[in-house]
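Posted in: Structural Biology > Protein-Ligand Complexes

Title: Requesting predicted complex, zinc ion in pocket

I'd be grateful if someone could produce the C-alpha cells for the following input. Sequence and ligand are given below.
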Amino acid sequence: MPSETSGEKATAPGERSFDRAPVPVTARPFRVTLGLVATTGVASQYVPSLVALGQWLPVRAVPAELCRWRGPRNSPHVALTFDDGPDPEGTPRVLDALDELGLRATFFVLGERALDTRDLVEEIALRGHQLGTHGHQHARHLLRSPAWVRRDLERSRAAMAALGHPARWFRPPYGQATGATLVVARSMGLRTVLWSAWGREWTPSSPQDVAARVAKRLRPGAIVLLHDSDRFGPPGMWRVIVDALPLIADEVRRSGLSAVTLDELVARP
Ligand SMILES: [Zn+2]
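-- Reply #1 --
Done. Output follows.
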C-alpha cells in the first residue's frame, strides 16, 4: 500500500513516474567531473600535498636532486630554517637571538618582500646566514598552473639576483610542492627543500611546546622549519620562536650537533 508519509508513489512495472525529472544521460559525466574538480579544489586547500605528507609518512622516495627533506644522516650538523620574511619586526629579533646563541641558519625570503626590505636582506647575509627563496608570492602551488609557478620562480630569482644574493635553495609556500613545482625549480637550477622537523608555531603554542616538537625530530642532518614573521600565521608567532630558540639551541648542543647553513649541511666532506 502506498505510504503518504514516505513521499513515494507506487509505480506499476513499465510505468514512468514524473515526480522527479529524469537526469539526461549526457549531463551525468559533466556533473561527476564538476564534483570531482570541486572536491579536489577543496581538498587541496585543507589537505597537505602528498610531498608535504613526507613530513609524517615514509614516502620520501623523490630523489634529493628534486627535493630534500634532510641532510646526510651521518652529519654532525642540523639546519635551522626561517620562512616568510624579511619582516621588519620579527627578523631583527630572530637575528639577534641567533647571534647570542651562536647559531647560523638559512632564511627563505619572499621575493616581493625582499625588494621592499633590502636592508634586512643585507643584514641576514652580513651576520653569516644563508638566503634562499620562498617564491615571489606566498601562494599554494596546488591551485596554480606550471606556467604560473615558473613565472613566480623567475620573479623571485630575479629579485634575489638584483639584491646581490642569487638563490640556490627554494622552499615552496605551505610545503606544497607539486610535480610541476619540482620540475620547474630543477630546470631553473633551484634546489627544492622541505623539512624533517618543525615547531608548528602557527598552532597555539608556548616556546616550550615548539622546542619539544623540534627536539622530537632533531637528529643528525635534520632540517628544521621555523618562522621569523607572523604575516601568514597568528600575531606574535615570531615572538614564540625568539623565546624558543634558547631551548632549541640547548637541544642542538645536547645532541652533540651544531647548526649550520643548508649549503654546509649538504656539503660533501
Ligand atoms: Zn611560508
